[in-house]
Amino acid sequence: MLGLGSSLVSSIKGRTLVNTYTSDFTNDQAATTGSISSADAAVHSDYSIEGNLDKDTNQTVDGSAGWIKFTYDTNQTNSTGILTNLDGFVWQSGDIHIITFDIYLGGTEWDGADNVSVRVLAPTTTQGIDFELPSASSGTSGAQVAQGETVSVKLTSYGNANVTSSQLYIYFPTGSDLPQADSWFALKNLVVKTYRLFG
Predict the structure, then answer these.
(1) Which of these, 27, 74, 82, 195, is most buried using a 10 Å CB contact count?
(2) Residue 83's domain is classified under what CATH number?
(3) pLDDT tens-digit profile of 53-92?
């Protein structure tokens, strides 16, 4: 992993935008069972859930509509979140990926009232590709998200392996504040851009 900092623009220079995936989370389907399909066919399934994770789409959160909302019914003691299938586009080693999304943490305090660590990981056959803040130092993954307000997150990764599944874990890691019973999080405006170097 590289610390990107202000070098983000120059790091992308020479690479071509080859894919943009967008999810608006507006279609309400199978809202409380199994998985949810959004309007663009992304599937959001449970990742390491103790108890149940209720799912509702097209929710109004913080005064705006179109969120997907996930509510826990049990205190969590391990890393927990969702696995999102993207559009099947194959990422290649050397690609640069930028993910942006809005997130809101609500409900019961998340094992404390301070900021909560949110991480994004793309699984591979040998190792995961971690996304980090553009201003993060090497090895610093994810973002710190305040509770009770809409937070826009932007994370970046240099691909270090081929990823054929085009999946993302969006999760809360062990060692941070974890969701408690009746804690919930909501997501909106998920965009994943992939840049590739040719020649």
Answers:
(1) 82
(2) 2.60.120.260
(3) 888 878 889 998 888 889 999 999 999 988 887 777 778 8
Distance, in Å, from the CA atom of 59 to the CA atom of 56, rounded to the nearest integer, reads 7
User: Where do we find the tokens 């969006």?
Assistant: 170
Q: Please give the Cα distance from 66 to 82 (Å, whole number).
A: 18
Tokens of 5: 């900092």
SS (H, E, C) the chain: CCCCHHHHHHHHCCEEEEEEEEECCCCCCCCCCCCEECCCCCEEEEECCCCCEEEEEEEEECCEEEEEEEEECCCCCCCEEEEEECCCCCECCCCEEEEEEEEEEEECCCCCCCCEEEEEEECCCCCCEECECCCCCCCCCEEEECCCCCEEEEEEEECCCCECCCEEEEEECECECCCCCCEEEEEEEEEEEEEEECC
Number of compact structural domains in the chain: 1
Place of tokens 């040719």: 198
User: How far apart are the C-alpha atoms of 68 and 45, rounded to whole Å?
Assistant: 12
First to last CA, the chain: 23
The residue range of the domain holding 74 is: 5-197
**pTM of the predicted protein model:** 0.79
